[in-house]
Each structure stands twice: as structure tokens, then as C-alpha cells.
Amino acid sequence: QVQLVESGGGVVQPGGSLRLSCAASGFTFSIYGMHWVRQAPDKGLEWVAVISYDGSNIYYTDSVKGRFTISRDKSKNTLFLQMNSLRVEDTAMYYCAKDKVRATVTGWFDPWGQGTLVTVSS
Amino acid sequence: DIQMTQSPSSLSASVGDRVTITCRSSQSISRSLNWYQQKPGRAPKLLIYAASTLQSGVPSRFTGSGSGTDFTLTISSLQPEDFATYYCQQTHNTPPEYTFGQGTKLEIK
User: Fold this and answer.
1) Inter-chain residue contact B89 with A106, CB threshold 8 Å
2) I want to staple B10 with a disulfide (CB 3.0 to 4.6 A). Which of A34, B77, B103, B105 is the partner?
3) pLDDT class of B94 with cuts at 50, 70, 90
């Protein structure tokens, strides 16, 4: 079955950096777009970034542009999110999610990983 | 930017009730609207995509409808496992924004 396992979260000071990973299994990783979605404590969902199946198309939500970088390694079946210049408002559970449809990006997130918690605090 | 507004923000209902949650977009999004269910401490789960298509494995008591700016999620007969928070999400824009509504918390009466 499809499995997504995030890691790399933790506590970091404002201005610091973290690199999140999402290990994928149970499907052909190289033919699906992948997303990062975050959820601040007791708040709603916010889409963060998407990378197409081949890495040729990448988009970000405005609040992370220039600070976050999404990437993927098909040899390791792993999705990444490099987060720099972190702010207190970046504190959230970060989920990776697979796009439902192969070889395109629909924004239909299915399934999601269990999430990794990022806390930005001094 | 497209804004998504759900109503109500919270709802109390009983097992067996019929429940409707509404989602409104700030501009027309055709049928580019999805619904997710999230239980406490768990990741969200896709229920309905493209306004009315039921995700595989989701019970038929869940129904999505609407187009343009107004959408609804209906649960025909609430079951104990349906008490959760529900989010709508638009997927209309290119480049993508994928905006979510603020969520509707469905609680047991």
C-alpha cells in the first residue's frame, strides 16, 4: 500500500534552517507530483509547495517563496523541503501528500503522510 | 487570490442525522473543489474531488455538489466515525494556490 513517512522536524530558532524528508513507498514515485501542506497548531490547512513528477514544474505559496525549496530524488523515492530563514509563523505540522493522478498535477492530495512537527521559537 | 469560506464553522449533530456543510469561493472555480476529512491527531483524508466524485473507499452517504462559487458536502445519515473536521479546497488556479476553507468541526450532540 502507499506509504509516506515524513521526518526532519524539530525545534529551531527564528532565522534557522531545517530540511524535511518524505520517504515514499508502495507506488511508482517517479510518475506522481508531490506536495507539502502544513497546519499550524489548532489551525486550518495551508498548501505550501508542489513539484511535478519530473521536477520540471515547481510552485510555492507566496509566504514561503524565496525561503523554502521543494525537491525530489527519484533514486531514493524521497521528497524534500529545505526551509531557510524560518519564522515563528512557520510553526506547524508539515505533511507530504501524493497527487492523486499520475503524470500531472491536480491538487487532489491522496494520500497524506502522518506529518512532522516544526517549531520555530527562541 | 481566491478565498474559501465554509459554514458553519462548527456543528453539533446526532447519529443518523442528515448534515450539510457549505463552501463558498470568492470567485467562480467551476467544479475545482475537493473535500477532506480530518480526525484529531490524524492526517486529512480525501473524500470528494472535482466537486462530486467520491474517492474510492469513501461511503456513499457522503455526497458533494455545486459549481461556480457555491458547493455543499452532505452526509446523509451520520455515523459515529464521521465526527471530524471537514475542509473544502479549491484547485482552480494556474499557477496553483490550492486554498483551503477554514474548516467545519462536526461534533456529537
Assistant:
1) no
2) B105
3) confident
